[in-house]
Amino acid sequence: MHARASADVQAYEGFQTSGRAADDGRSDEALVANWHRGNPQAGMELVDRYTALAERTALRFRADDVDVRALGQAGVVGVFDALYAFDFEDEESFRDVVGRCIERQVEAAASRQLHLRDRVAVAD
């Protein structure tokens, strides 16, 4: 385990016992800590939890004539970004971090699609 993950797991253990959150081991934060400990199933559970959010975020761009399924997949990449970006010492919840990461990935993918479409139209 690399130093960042080790620090995150230690911070999670402090977070868990600080009284800030009751935890049955299935909370987002518990799953992030388990993922950092090397449990890939914990990460996949978070992907499953947030895939619908990624798809809903992608649907906001359907009027722009983009491939919404591809944008939804980009949103799932945002879940993995959040797994790496989440900081237990921050006051921000994993849900907030994952929402921001999904949005950033979907917007970037939509921008790329629109840019490529415009370039193809200019080349014709």
State the gist of this model.
The chain has helices at about 5-15, 30-35, 40-60, 70-85, 95-124.
**What is the makeup of the main sheet?**
none
Order of helices and strands: HHHHH
Shape annotation = elongated
Structural class: mainly alpha
Overall average pLDDT: 82
List the defining traits of the structure above.
124 residues; mainly alpha; 74% helix
Structure explained in plain terms:
The chain has 124 residues and is mainly alpha-helical. Helix content is 74%, strand content 0%. It is built from five helices and no strands. It has helices at residues 3-17, 28-36, 40-59, 68-85, 94-123. It starts with a helix and ends with a helix. The protein has one domain (3-123).
Provide the fold topology.
Elements: H1 3-17, H2 28-36, H3 40-59, H4 68-85, H5 94-123
Helix pairs in contact: 1-2, 2-3, 3-4, 3-5, 4-5
